[in-house]
Amino acid sequence: MKTPLFLPFTQEILPVPQTGEHLIAYGLQEVPETGWQPHLEIIQPWRPDYLKLSQAGFNTLPQVQEGQTYDGGLLLLDKHRKRNENRLLHLLMAVKAGGRVVVCGDKVSGAASLRKWAGQFVPAADSLSKNHAIVFWLRVPEKLDKSILAQRQNTGTRIDNRFETLPGMFSHGRIDTGSALLTRFMPDILEGAVADFGAGWGYLSACALENCPDITALDLYEADYDALQVARRNLANIPSSVLPGFHWQDLTREQPHQCYDTIISNPPFHEGRAADVSLGQAFIRCAARALKPNGKLLLVANRHLPYETILADCFRHSEHLAQENGFKIILAQP
């Protein structure tokens, strides 16, 4: 289903961009109509959507270009309230005075409450509803104290005064219970060239650098560009002779370019709001192809996820090392 985000333009409530006008867009997952191609700079840190949009010919970037200004802005909301707020605040700072910011979301993404929240800075000019979604738009005023907007941006949550995490990331503000369980088994198993599949903000890799003396190389693979940049910062101050590599890749579609002695992973099992066991299965297939002949996959998963069949198909041997607190630790060898 096409997003109602563009509805105010198709219904001619708002004027479509004119030649030379450029809008910045957050949150787009589906490819817009081709007429928008010359006008959009799409910010999409999620690798699968980035590839889809860029391959369709749209100017797509994984992160904003600081200091750029735009004639307008678009925001498609997701389920992460603080990230939505941050993006809206950035649009209000980046869009020129007189430009419009158009926001779209449903009840789950909190569109109505975000509209009310935004009213403390700029009142909504108008809105419309369709298919359980709300679209509202704001006009950036001539006088807007952008220093106040900058102060209101959520800069994330630090864990143990050392790990940075940002809204919208997996395990924001906390160490995932399954990942913590996995780290107990890493020192005895990790050796040689190691890869972290679905590295997130870098917790498993940080523990590997600190507690696994037999590793000689470490590569982090992550589809969320923002999380990968946070992982880079989280690992920067760990004293180690191993220099980590950081790879923005969608492992369900893009295979690593080398093979490893050990792979660690806490694979994702959600696509948006829906559980999707095929994501973890794709990670397992990818790991089987990326391991050296005598390599090892050390995996943590929710206990209910049915990975045993795919493990039996892809690996010569697999075993459960532990089952605790709703998680299972699996060791597999090709």
Automatic annotation (TrEMBL):
Task: Report the GO molecular function annotations.
Answer: N-methyltransferase activity; nucleic acid binding; S-adenosylmethionine-dependent methyltransferase activity
Identify the residues that the record assigns to the Methyltransferase small domain, covering every copy: 162-330
The record's annotation in InterPro entries points to: DNA_methylase_N6_adenine_CS, RsmC/RlmG, SAM-dependent_MTases_sf, Small_mtfrase_dom
For this chain's UniProt record, which GO biological process terms are given?
methylation; rRNA processing
Coiled-coil segments on the chain, per record: none
Q: Which UniProt keywords apply?
A: Cytoplasm, Methyltransferase, rRNA processing, S-adenosyl-L-methionine, Transferase
Family matches, as Pfam families? MTS
Q: Fetch the SUPFAM superfamilies from UniProt.
A: S-adenosyl-L-methionine-dependent methyltransferases
What is the official name of this protein in its record?
A: Ribosomal RNA small subunit methyltransferase C
What is the scientific name of the source organism? Candidatus Tokpelaia hoelldobleri
